[in-house]
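note to self: dont lose this again. the chain is below, predicted strucutre after it. 134 aa total, dont forget to put it in the shared folder this time
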Amino acid sequence: TAMNGASFWAITGHPVEDYTVVQRFFEFLVSSEIQNEWHQKTCYLPVIAGVKELAEKQHFYEQGITGNVAKIAIDSFMKRTPAEFSRGVLLPEFPAIRDRIVQELRAAFKGNQSIEMALEHSDIQANAIIKAKE
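---
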């Protein structure tokens, strides 16, 4: 499972019993309760169905600035069809894009190109990666 660029891997070659534990751990991570806790403590955008409704039942969005900010984020990203600047909420291509950004920034830090060019090249390459997956 992947969340905002972080990922958990289950590597082959272990006893079957180990994978039962791994499966239970992954199920725990994506449970509505855990996703809701992350959402409320960090304003992490929930990607699991039902989390927003659970937060609403707990009146989270009415609880000060954190709740208000989280509500704005959800309304901005989750109630619309993904567009150019919002399609990154769920971005499985992020690791490949991050690698390209790092390469371009390294070239800039070495003096081989300007920061502006590194950012422009990163943008072009990121969009190409995303379009290739569509």
